[in-house]
Design goal:
Strand content of chain B: 35-45%
Strand order of the largest sheet of chain A: 11-12-13-10-4-14
CATH class of the largest domain in chain A: Alpha Beta
Largest interface: A-B, 17 and 14 residues
Structural class of chain B: alpha+beta
Distance between the termini of chain B: 15 Å
Radius of gyration of chain A: 20 Å
Oligomer: heterodimer
CATH architecture of the largest domain in chain A: 2-Layer Sandwich
Distance between the termini of chain A: 43 Å
Number of strands of chain B: 9
Radius of gyration of chain B: 13 Å
CATH architecture of chain B: Beta Barrel
Helix content of chain A: 10-25%
CATH superfamily of the largest domain in chain A: Probable tRNA modification gtpase trme, domain 1
Number of domains of chain B: 1
Chain lengths: ~350, ~130
């Protein structure tokens, strides 16, 4: 079954090209087009409907112990009002999902997961809960907007104070509506994510679009932006066959504490996630073989034309690490095109 | 949607402009460029390549996906539009000016659609 977000009619009215994504009807792009939407976020400000994302909560005396055991990161010293990335793994070290955790209070955590994994995640978490903890899937209680780009603070600041630090949040009001605003995003750009009640989403969406600088953006730009910023996407850079260490998410894994999948992932292979700049003619997308001379070294996990960098880039999982500058070839529909290993991320914002 | 009356069309969304009885230019229709979105790469055929009607002859890539271009008629590639290699967005900006390749010794044009018939094909695909 495919659901509509509270903003579905808004997307249709704006001429959005609607697709079924993770069980939701969402716009892949508006008539503006992916490239201009992408550039708006890099140079101005763009607005996304990300209401499809899943939200779950852990509350109670053992809430922290549960997330520290079920997730790979350590949340012990996460302060109230701060956000931290993490991964949830199977016993064998493969990924169930990746997520971000908001600390709402001492024993109160709000966790954002991928829409496509929501039901699987909820089932997995429920299987592993222990002690005094109340766990709930609250996805249907929230809509989510992402306002992203260098001008996003100027636009949102007209309505509310803003969380000052990257990966921090505040509870505030916009137009009298209760919202959570965090300085987070999936674009590699300065920006904010706004969680609101579903019934308030249309009013907030319309209000933010009154500022003519704000460009509505679809899933297409969301994907090119995250790829340019080399942010991993579940189902591409990671899945149940890949551990977070293999895909370069070491920063979100704390091996000095006990958590599900720890021992197995430490014993696994030496795979690496690398970046490839395509130097030949063509675009490498996912599932292309990557060759070092005559040796098959891995496959691409995502790839596209990056509008801001004005070139084709791909991420790949390879059998070991390769130094930046290493020349490789990528098999694109039977044609080998040249590329070179490039440090990740491809794009990093200044400051 | 713009569908010039003087051109012929294939169901696979290529347009054909005859420059003589046996020579033509081939490009992508306005409907096609709109459906594909921003084009970022064009993989053109080789000059002298044989075009076989309804078979893939080259491909174009948008930000989102790669799409095959089919030969709308039989013929031999006489020229390719190299300007598109550096500026694939010309196809979005001016689909009927941005020809992909020229063919000579053309045959098999009988099945091509006129503008009116082609618009019907597009209308059906929209649903």
């Amino acid at each position: 079954m495919t659901s509509k977000t509270p903003l579905y009619e808004e997307h249709v009215a704006l001429g959005g090209r609607i697709v079924d994504f993770a069980g939701y009807f969402l716009p892949v792009q508006y008539p503006t087009g992916v490239i201009k939407e992408h550039m708006a976020v890099r140079e101005g400000v763009g607005l996304f409907d990300v209401s499809h994302m899943g939200e779950v909560t852990f509350r109670g005396k053992d809430a922290l112990a549960n997330i520290n055991y079920i997730f790979t990161n350590d949340y012990t010293n996460l302060k109230n009002g701060r956000v931290r990335y993490g991964v949830m793994c199977y016993e064998d070290g493969g990924c169930v999902d990746d997520l971000i955790v908001y600390r709402m209070g001492e024993d109160d955590f709000f966790v954002v997961v991928n829409a496509s994994n929501r039901h699987k995640d909820v089932a997995w978490i429920k299987e592993h809960l222990f002690g005094e903890v109340e766990f709930a899937d609250v996805s249907d209680d929230y809509a989510q907007l992402a306002l992203q780009g260098p001008l996003s603070g100027e636009v949102l600041g007209k309505y509310t104070e803003l969380p000052k630090k990257y990966y921090s949040f505040i509870r505030t009001q916009i137009l009298g509506k209760d919202v959570i605003v965090s300085q987070t995003g999936y674009t590699g750009e300065y920006g904010f994510e706004i969680y609101c009640r579903p019934e308030d989403a249309v009013e907030l969406w319309r209000e933010l679009l009154k500022d003519e600088r704000v460009v509505p953006c679809g899933l297409g730009a969301r994907d090119t932006l995250r790829l340019e910023a080399a942010m991993p996407l579940y189902g591409h850079e990671m899945d149940e066959t890949v551990s977070p260490l293999e895909t370069g998410l070491d920063f979100g894994v704390k091996l000095n504490k006990d958590f599900i999948g720890r021992d197995a992932m430490m014993a696994r292979t030496n795979r690496h996630r690398i970046g490839i700049q395509i130097t030949g003619r063509g675009i490498a997308r996912e599932h292309c073989d990557v060759w070092l001379g005559e040796k098959l070294i891995g496959h691409t996990t995502s790839g596209t034309h990056c509008p801001y960098l004005k070139g084709a880039y791909a991420m790949a999982l390879t059998d070991e690490a390769y130094e930046p500058g290493t020349e490789v070839t990528v098999d694109v529909r039977g044609r080998k095109i040249e590329g070179k290993v490039t440090p990740l991320p491809f794009y990093k914002r200044e400051g | 949607m713009n569908t010039p009356k003087e051109l012929k069309y294939a169901k696979t969304h290529e347009w054909v402009r005859f420059t003589s009885e046996t020579e033509c230019e081939v490009g992508l229709s306005d409907f096609a460029q709109d459906a594909l979105g921003d084009l970022v790469f064009v993989n053109l055929p080789e000059v002298d390549a044989e075009a076989v009607k309804d078979e893939t002859i080259c491909d174009v890539e948008s930000v989102k996906a790669v799409s095959d271009v089919y030969a709308p008629v039989n013929g031999t590639v006489s020229e390719v539009n190299e300007e598109l290699l550096d500026s694939p967005e010309l196809i979005n900006n001016d689909p009927y000016g941005a020809w992909l390749f020229r063919l000579k010794d053309v045959s098999g044009a009988e099945d091509l659609l006129d503008a009116e018939a082609y618009e019907k094909v597009c209308a059906e695909e929209e649903h």
